[in-house]
């Protein structure tokens, strides 16, 4: 087996987890930051129309998230399969999987682009567009759809690079594309006066540059896996494995998109464009909490996958335990930060007094259960890394599909607009409890396996 991946089974877990997760955390935070900057520039560039512009981007954002869900599903599925193959020393099959990930991504991306591009008005109306914000939503969505391949390949390749243990390459890509996005935002929106369209174009161009960077990494021979054209021919068994394992991540991403669709429509009824704009800002502020947690899960994935394949069960348990401790601390830190200064954060995006006041009230409610979010994220990643599709799929559905969406629909009947915001901490708590039970059960099982092998 290639020695480039063997450190996953020998290095101290604490050092290894931070070594793999830190680049992912930095890269993901940069990504979250440039999403915030996108919204900041939209709010500042449109002046008195800032609420409508931010609302329009919020309406179009589920489309972008659905695109990301497809690519992350393929990437996570492929990376889980590749990690386990590297752990069991089957490099040839790992390389065949890599090639199939490429062809699978290309096929699904083209299908997605065709279906959504020619039905964009219908899609945006379904996503909760109003008569006032539709023009901004369409400007953003059309450009994003034109860059579908840049998005999908960028996210897929990032996951594959992490599966090899080369998290620094993934970090460099995310930082590079994130900084470039911010730079292009300023030029296109203020220098060329392109408004919302400029924000979308900046995002597409930055993703394209990142994708080219990662393609160079694979084609230059720096990866422990070789990218060969012969491996691009789709193989049913490989596509099935990728889809089965990655389906949980796809559902989690797609449920985020569906959640935003439902929320935008509910908010249009109970609060109009102002409430949609509040949510558009709040959801990106919440990413400041979620991204470090996801970064830890990215660091965890290759460790669990490799050591499970190598039957090092003590290392599997230790890595999960430490990941849960770290993500809980991240969630607590985010809760404190956003609870203490919500108005300050909202005032960065607009001078509209109603937006700032409403946003501060909403954010304080939404972050109440933030310290528990890591349980669900780590639980989902844990089972994905083991190749356990059913529990990972179930956990990926818990927070958004099973709990959040029904609560978003139900609670406003009793608590009006506040009920929408209350749905977030309640669903976080419920998903965390279920995740804790399933992870603990598996944790005990590995303890027994480890004892019997001693």
UniProtKB/TrEMBL annotation:
This is Multidrug export protein MepA. PANTHER family: MULTIDRUG EXPORT PROTEIN MEPA (PTHR43823:SF3), SPORULATION PROTEIN YKVU (PTHR43823). GO terms for biological process: response to antibiotic. It is found in: Cell membrane. Keywords: Antibiotic resistance, Cell membrane, Membrane, Transmembrane, Transmembrane helix, Transport. The lineage of its organism: Archaea, Methanobacteriati, Methanobacteriota, Stenosarchaea group, Methanomicrobia. The keyword Transmembrane applies. Belongs to the multi antimicrobial extrusion (MATE) (TC 2.A.66.1) family. MepA subfamily.
């Amino acid at each position: 087996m290639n020695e480039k991946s063997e450190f996953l089974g020998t290095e101290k877990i604490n050092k290894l987890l931070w070594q793999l997760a830190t680049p992912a955390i930095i890269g993901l935070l940069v990504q979250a930051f440039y999403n915030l900057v996108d919204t900041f520039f939209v709010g500042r560039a449109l002046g008195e129309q800032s609420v409508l512009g931010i609302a329009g981007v919020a309406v179009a954002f589920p489309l972008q998230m659905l695109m990301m869900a497809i690519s992350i599903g393929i990437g996570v599925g492929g990376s889980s399969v590749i990690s386990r193959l590297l752990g069991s020393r089957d490099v040839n099959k790992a390389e065949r999987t890599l090639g199939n990930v490429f062809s699978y991504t290309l096929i699904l991306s083209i299908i997605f682009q065709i279906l959504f591009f020619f039905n964009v008005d219908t899609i945006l109306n379904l996503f909760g567009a109003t008569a006032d914000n539709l023009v901004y939503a369409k400007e953003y969505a059309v450009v994003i759809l034109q860059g579908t391949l840049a998005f999908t390949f960028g996210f897929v390749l990032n996951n594959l690079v992490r599966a090899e243990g080369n998290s620094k390459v993934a970090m460099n890509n995310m930082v590079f594309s994130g900084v470039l996005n911010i730079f292009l935002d300023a030029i296109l929106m203020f220098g060329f006066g392109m408004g919302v369209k400029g924000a979308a174009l900046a995002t597409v161009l930055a993703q394209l540059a990142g994708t080219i960077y990662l393609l160079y990494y694979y084609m230059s021979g720096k990866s422990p896996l070789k990218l060969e054209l012969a491996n691009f021919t789709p193989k049913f068994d490989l596509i099935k494995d990728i889809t089965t394992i990655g389906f949980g991540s796809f559902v989690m991403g797609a449920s985020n998109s569906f959640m935003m669709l439902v929320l935008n429509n509910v908010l249009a009824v109970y609060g109009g464009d102002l409430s949609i704009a509040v949510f558009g800002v709040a959801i990106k502020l919440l990413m400041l909490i979620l991204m470090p947690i996801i970064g830890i899960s990215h660091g965890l994935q290759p460790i669990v996958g490799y050591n499970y394949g190598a039957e090092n069960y003590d290392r599997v348990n230790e890595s999960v335990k430490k990941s849960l401790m770290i993500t809980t601390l991240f969630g607590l830190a985010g809760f404190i930060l956003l609870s203490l200064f919500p108005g300050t954060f909202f005032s960065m995006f607009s001078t509209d007094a109603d937006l700032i006041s409403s946003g501060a009230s909403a954010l304080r409610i939404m972050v109440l259960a933030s310290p528990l979010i890591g349980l669900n994220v780590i639980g989902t990643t844990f089972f994905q890394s083991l190749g356990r599709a059913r529990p990972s799929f179930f956990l990926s559905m818990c927070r958004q599909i099973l709990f959040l969406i029904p609560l978003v629909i139900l609670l406003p009947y009793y608590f009006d607009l506040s009920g929408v915001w209350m749905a977030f901490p309640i669903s976080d708590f419920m998903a965390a409890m279920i995740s804790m039970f399933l992870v603990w059960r598996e944790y005990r099982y590995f303890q027994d396996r480890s004892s019997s092998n001693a």
